[in-house]
Every structure is written in C-alpha cells, then in structure tokens.
Amino acid sequence: MKKILVGGAGGFIGSHLVKRLKEQGFWVRGVDVKRPEFDETCADEFEILDLRRQDDCLKATRDVDTAYCLAANMGGIGWTHAAPAEILHDNLLMSTNTLEACRLSGVENIFYSSSACVYPNYLQETNDSPGLKEDKVFPADPDMEYGWEKLTAEMMHETYRKSYGLNIKVARFHNIYGPLGTYDGGREKSPAALCRKIAKIEGNEGEIEVWGDGTQARSYCYVDDCVEGCIRIMNSDVTIPLNLGSDRMVTINELIAMISDISGKKIHCKYDLTKPVGPKGRNSDNTLIQAKLGWSPNITLEQGMSDTYKWIDAQLKK
Ligand code: NAD
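That is the input. Now the predicted structure with nicotinamide-adenine-dinucleotide docked in place:
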C-alpha cells in the first residue's frame, strides 16, 4: 500500500486532503505544528513536528513514498501585511528543509502547493484583468514576500526535479475556501471573513465593514475541487506548475450579494479604504489544466459559498 505524508495536515486544505486520501484507502501520516482546529484528524498517524527544522523534516518523511507538502505560515491579506519577515523566514525554511528531507529519505513522489501570488502584480491591475496563464510569471513581480517565497520554492522544486530526477508536481492554488477553514482571528480570507460578519448580524438586516471599495475581484475555488485537483495533478505526468483555481472572477461586492442571498439578510456595506486589498483583479486561466488533465474545478460558487456559510454560521452558534 502507498504510504503518504501530508505536511500541514492540521490546516484547512491539509485536513481535507487527509480525509480524501483515507477514503481512497491509503496509509497517511499527518504532520503539523498543531492538530486540526475543528475536526479530529483522519490520519493513521499524526505527529507534531516543526517543518522549519531539518531533523523534524527527516522524521516526517521517513518510510513514505509520497509527500504532499502543504505546510506554510500563511493567512489572508491582513496577516500577509502584518508579518512579512516571519512569513518569508518560516516558509523558506519549510520549503527547503522539507524538499531536501524528501530527497534524503527517498520519497518518490512530491507535491508542492504554490500560489497565484507568484503572478506579477502588473497583470492584475484592473478588475477585468484576463485570467493568469502559467507561463506569465516572468518578469517577476509577485504579490508580497509570501509570493516571492512561493516563486523561489517553485524554482527550487524545478532544480531538484532536474538535478535529482525526482517526480515533483506543483500546483498554484487560487483562493481556496470552504468548511473547516479559519474564519476568525486575523488569518482568515475574504470569503470566510464575509460569511462570519454576515452570520454575526442579528435579525435580517445589518451593516458590515468591507476592506477597500468592494470592486476588487478574485476567483474562488471550493476546497473539494482543490483536493480533487491535488490528487489528479499528483497522478498525472505533468511536470510544470498548473493553476488550480476557478476561472470565474467576482468582485467582493458580488460575493457579498451572494452571501446576502444565502443568509436571507439585507446587507449594508461600510467601506474602509485604509485597509489593504491586494491586486485589483486576479483570475485563473484554466486552459492548461483542462488540456493536460481533461478536468478543472467545477463546483459552483453558489454551492460552495452556501456550504461555507452554513458551516461558519453553525460554528458561531456553538
Ligand atoms: P493553513 O494555514 O490552514 O495550513 C497550513 C498549515 O501549515 C497550518 O496547519 C500550519 O499550522 C502548518 N504549519 C505552519 N508552520 C509550520 C511548521 N513550522 N511546521 C509544520 N507545520 C506548519 O493553510 P491552507 O489554506 O490549508 O494552505 C495550505 C497550503 O496551500 C499552503 O502551502 C498555502 O501557502 C497554500 N495556498 C493556500 C491558498 C488558500 O487560498 N488557502 C492559496 C494559495 C496557496
């Protein structure tokens, strides 16, 4: 039986991925600095290890043939602005030490979770910017320190593939959302933050604070599609990074209107123009993943946001 390591298994996407791999019958070791926040892990073995440390990375990668490397110090735009040194330091160490440990431990298949933040800011300056194609990362101008680290780590994975012949797969996630994701505390992303703010409104009408003027646009990918894509990419013969995201871009105001419909609450927005909003428009171009895999994320935003809202609403009522 295949033995699989999931790094970052205490996190949002990692915990969903562990569950899916267990459903498919694999033996799974989860590793993280913390256990999953909202649910018990489904992993056969769960070890608290610090993947910034080489010795812990060697423990994590022992006796497995496949590794999904999802651990990162990350959060929404507020966190990315608040902790640039910590993000760059921790993630460079994690990416480097995990990859080297995979090589030393003889891990045959490696999956690295990169991000849409590798794409240049100059391609995302309007909220109708075209979808980002995989080959448009250079000249480099990634989104903040988090994006620079992801781009550097992508290059490092590529060199390990070339120099050591490792079977390495890379996906660029675009705004993944869904149940079991952080929705409070400063690290949450916009879909979860908006669901929380709207769920907290008592009665059927109220006001929420919105970062920026609400015209910034993103595409959002439901976590089940993300997990499906990770496994499909890992099982493919594609050796270049692929976008893993939705190619339907919506503005924050459109997302709020959708959550308003889902919740049945009338929402008034108080726009805070002093808060960071990131690139004006970011969308995934799914031509390449569709051509390579004959598949791309397909769960509708309405369905995904409905499930996410209900889960956050239930969490708040607990
Ligand atoms: P998450 O924060 O929920 O999960 C990351 C996990 O890594 C956390 O559980 C965290 O505790 C763990 N971690 C942090 N430092 C660690 C350390 N030193 N040792 C071991 N574990 C450590 O985030 P997520 O949304 O599940 O993201 C998973 C991966 O996908 C990350 O690499 C992230 O950069 C990437 N990604 C996510 C998104 C998104 O929208 N969620 C978008 C682009 C890329």
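The pocket of nicotinamide-adenine-dinucleotide is lined by residues 8, 10-14, 32-34, 50-52, 70-74, 90, 94, 113, 115, 173, 175-176, 189 (CB under 6 Å).
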